[in-house]
């Protein structure tokens, strides 16, 4: 998550880390359970954004879309400076969800929002990966 400062003592963050570790051992059901528990335990909009972002993983397209919408909605409740580095990823994931559910106009809109949200962020491997992914998607969608 780029330079978002996450409190490693936050139970939501700990559960998401546990979920990622489970994924690394192909324990997808355990990962999803950890992400769902993180969602239940959320205390703030930032917690909700993080938990929803992870809840979207390994889901069918319509469920993934809903979780990605929730993640962005939660992010929009957080002070911009605290979430600005994470917004490109949120837009990218939501755009991908729209693309996967054949909502190409919304996908294009969110890929463009993704690119716009990169403006002013420091150059980094994260920045490059997000930018290249969004540009490739727009080219794929011929927009």
Give a structural overview.
The chain has 143 residues and is an all-alpha fold. It has a single domain, classed as Serine Threonine Protein Phosphatase 5, Tetratricopeptide repeat, CATH 1.25.40.10. Helices cover 72% and strands 0% of the residues. It contains 8 helices and no strands. Helix 1 packs parallel to helix 3. The two termini are 28 Å apart. The model has no long low-confidence stretch (mean pLDDT 93).
Distance between the ends: 28 Å
The CATH class designation is Mainly Alpha
- Helix/sheet category: mainly alpha
**What is the CATH superfamily classification?**
Tetratricopeptide repeat domain
Beta-strand portion reads under 5%
- Measured as a percent range, the helix fraction is over 70%
Sequence of secondary-structure elements: HHHHHHHH
| C-alpha-based Rg, rounded | 15 Å
How does CATH name the architecture? Alpha Horseshoe
* Biggest sheet features: none
Shape: globular
Number of helices: 8
Mean pLDDT: 93
Instruction: Write the CATH fold name.
Output: Serine Threonine Protein Phosphatase 5, Tetratricopeptide repeat
Number of strands: 0
* Domain tally: 1
Q: Which key phrases capture this entry?
A:
single chain; 143 residues; mainly alpha; Serine Threonine Protein Phosphatase 5, Tetratricopeptide repeat
